[in-house]
Specification:
Distance between the termini: 61 Å
Order of helices and strands: HHEEEEEEEEE
CATH superfamily of the domain at 58-153: Peptide methionine sulfoxide reductase
Largest sheet: 6 strands, antiparallel
CATH class of the domain at 58-153: Mainly Beta
Strand content: 35-45%
Shape: globular
Strand order of the largest sheet: 3-4-8-7-6-5
Number of strands: 9
CATH topology of the domain at 58-153: Metal Binding Protein, Guanine Nucleotide Exchange Factor, Chain A
Number of helices: 2
Structural class: mainly beta
Length: 157
């Protein structure tokens, strides 16, 4: 029988009529399911939003090992972050973006947004939202990750 036939064939509330579909030996349920005991906590497993391909060299968060970027997306290794050397990437994964703000950096005025690891919430660097000088326009939409917040992972020999 389909669910619609069971619901219309009986004059029972839906939870009682559907209860008999679960098992031929189960008594129909009277009322909704009881709430879970207060002492039981349902915890989410620690998972990343995106996993990068295992066959590529990649960079991961130094604090929680969440995947951040493929080596193929690396544009430049010659950038300076607020805490030391940094790399410029074309694209990244598992990062969140804060609000954009204007900052005067070594190469002039830019609109940037801080980025953080979505897994451990550590600030990793920033995203270039807008460059105000024509020679810096290539940075727009690109990401800076500081070296002290990432590790080389998978396939580095």
């Amino acid at each position: 029988k389909c669910v619609a036939q069971v619901l219309t064939a009986h004059s029972l509330p839906p939870w009682q009529a559907l209860g008999s579909l679960c098992s031929p030996w189960a008594a129909p349920r009277v009322g909704p399911l009881p709430p879970a005991p207060a002492m039981v906590r349902i915890s989410k497993p620690k998972t990343f939003q995106a996993y990068l391909d295992d066959c590529h060299r990649r960079y991961s968060c130094a604090h929680c090992r969440a995947h951040l970027a493929n080596h193929d997306d690396l544009i430049s290794k010659s950038f300076q972050g607020s805490q030391g050397r940094a790399y410029l990437f074309n694209s990244v994964v598992n990062v969140g973006c804060g609000p954009a703000e204007e900052r005067v950096l070594l190469t002039g005025l830019h609109a940037v947004a801080d980025i953080h690891c979505e897994n451990c919430k550590t600030t990793l660097g920033w995203k270039y939202e807008q460059a105000f000088e024509s020679s810096q326009k290539y940075k727009e939409g690109k990401y800076i990750i500081e070296l002290n917040h990432m590790i080389k992972d998978n396939g580095w020999d």
